[in-house]
Write the structure tokens for this entry.
Amino acid sequence: MMDDKKIIDLFFSRSEQALAETETKYGRLCSNIAYGILGNNEDTEECVSSSYVKLWNAIPPKRPESLCGYLCMIVRNTALTAFDKLKRRSYEEQYDELAEIIPDNATVESRFDSSQLGEWINEFLAKESRKSREVFVSRYYFNMSVSETARGLSMTESAVKTRLSRTRAALKDFLNERGVEV
């Protein structure tokens, strides 16, 4: 296995062997770092590949004292950025799912105190089955994906989606009865 100084020299000579040597020496470490943040093989592979491109573009002009440390920093930052994008997308998906049921804040505040809306949602959930509450809270409170919810509750993804759809429809009817118009 090639030492870091020689690998960095390969980067400076713009040899593609630099990437191959980096992958051989640090590939498993990079994957472990990215997977620890992202928790998904596909996203991990994409993150590590992007990190190698960033490393290629950074050396030269940079000549890091520790190739391992420098690469780990790049992988970590790339994974954190990807994680933020994935979570943001997840929050947007959840908002879209609930937007059909719960009015926006401006409408809520003009008609009644928004804390009242929270109380009504809690009242609704108290009347639902335990499993429906667990699915709803997992998805919309703990921000778990459908597949994570299914795994955590020993259900199929299809069953989770069906239960969420039915619970949202029932919540919409429940809120409509209390004068909440969407």
Observations:
- The radius of gyration is 24 Å.
- Residues 176 and 182 are 8 Å apart (CA to CA).
- The chain has a mean pLDDT of 85.
- Residues 67-99 form the longest helix (33 residues).
